[in-house]
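All the exercises in this workshop are built on plain-text protein records. Sequence and backbone structure share a record, each on its own labelled line. The question running through the whole workshop is how a given chain folds. The record below serves as our worked example for the rest of this section.
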Amino acid sequence: MGATHTWSESNGAGEVVTDGITTVNFGSVDSADLTPASNPIVAGENSFHKCIRSKFSSAFTEISNMKIWKSVGAYATGEAIQYKESTSYVQPVETALSGAAAIPTSEPSQNVLSAAGTATITVAGYTEYMLMQEQTTVSTPAGAVATKTLTFQYDEM
């Protein structure tokens, strides 16, 4: 039997972990299950950043070569999704993520996610945190933006 993969999101001042999330919706509150229409991002402002981790369970020898990128969905004028890796939980805020970069729009050539600072996972558990944030400019049109698909790929032995 191979590895089982799920996504986890952490929120709040004391890190509340929600395992098994299926969507990452950006908005103006810190919540794993937010509704974007009820929690809109004002043009020129940022969403609360998301603290996302991959969780691997079941039997496997090694997980490596973990990559994530935006594979589907057009950006609106002035819209971007920024991300960076973090070794520890960072309570979500609306302040622009320092040191973040645009999430790749095609398969990256190198890992973008690791576990405890290493490029491989050899025991069940969580990867390091990936902080993601939707950022807008005053040029971003009002209303909903296009849905995006993030693709996650890894090698398993």
Notes: The chain has one domain: 4-156.
